[in-house]
Write a structure and sequence with these properties.
It is a single chain. Helix content is 31%, strand content 12%. The chain is an alpha+beta fold. The relative contact order is 0.15. The structure holds zinc ion. The site of zinc ion has 8 residues, from α1. Zinc ion (ZN) binds next to α1.
Length: 264
């Protein structure tokens, strides 16, 4: 008779519909399962869960983008070997060991991939936030819902580029840390510090707050997060996915060949 439902409030944090209009039977992984995420969230309906995992006509799916980009970081965190490519079954790029080149082979434009990657950060964020606080349905999260789930509007993401990466390769790397301090950043500054696999992103969560506090908040984080090394390290708004250096070019001589033709 009964089946397990992944609910707590019983309302989906994304579409805000309730059972029985929607079901909650499929395990909603906070970090995509394809990357190895094991933390299971709740109040994410099957429709929304499916949405994040399916490609739509004009856009590659956010779960896949997240998995591919962070999968590349994981693969290239070690010195590439002839086997590296085997760990990267990729829809978006291909790696050739002999020439040490990476080619983005996606038929999607860089701007589409960038937007989808940013949305995937918000998808993971809200699922974890709700898991941690139970407050994912709060109206202050409406901008996150609109952006990640309904592809409406735009939220700013900042990226901290360091020449040094402090990465943990253990199991912990597959959890999005969410300390009390990080949660209070949302209320105090409108931003959330998203730290994953040794990479720092600052996510604008509440634009009305973030616009008032951004200079202060970004300055504070720049002071804390930038590790002085060569002078190239900086904090910048993420407007092009290549800023993130998923292929860890900073540590090698890999060459990225990008086809920038925009199909849409
Ligand atoms: Zn839903």
């Amino acid at each position: 008779m009964g089946y397990k439902q992944y609910i707590k409030e019983g309302t989906c944090i994304w579409c805000q519909r309730n059972s029985p209009r929607v079901t909650f039977r499929n395990e909603p992984h906070i970090i995509p399962e394809s990357l190895g995420g094991t933390e299971i969230g709740f109040d994410i309906c099957d429709d929304c869960n499916r949405y994040f995992g399916s490609a739509n006509k004009n856009e590659p799916n956010t779960n896949l983008i997240f998995k591919e980009m962070f999968g590349a970081i994981r693969a290239f965190s070690c010195t590439p070997t002839p086997d590296t490519y085997k760990n990267l079954s990729s829809v978006y790029f291909e790696y050739r060991y002999k020439t040490n080149t990476i080619k983005i082979k996606s038929r999607f434009s860089i701007s589409v991939i960038t937007r989808q990657f940013k949305r995937s950060l918000y998808e993971v964020f809200l699922q974890k936030y709700h898991y941690q606080t139970g407050k994912g349905l709060d109206c202050k999260m409406d901008n996150v819902r609109n952006y990640a789930r309904w592809n409406k509007g735009n939220l700013r993401v900042y990226y901290v580029y360091n020449k040094v990466i402090l990465t943990s390769t253990g199991k912990d790397a597959l959890f999005l840390p969410m300390s009390d301090g990080a949660i209070s950043d949302i209320d105090d500054y409108g931003f959330f510090p998203f730290w994953f696999m040794g990479h720092y992103f600052l996510l604008e969560i509440i634009p009305s707050k973030a616009q008032l506090a951004d200079f202060l908040y970004l300055q504070k984080n720049a002071n804390q997060l930038i590790i002085p090394a060569t002078g190239e390290e900086r904090l910048m708004e993420l407007t092009d996915i290549r800023q993130v250096d998923f292929f860890m070019e900073r540590f090698g001589k890999k060459h990225i060949d990008v086809n920038e033709k925009c199909r849409y």
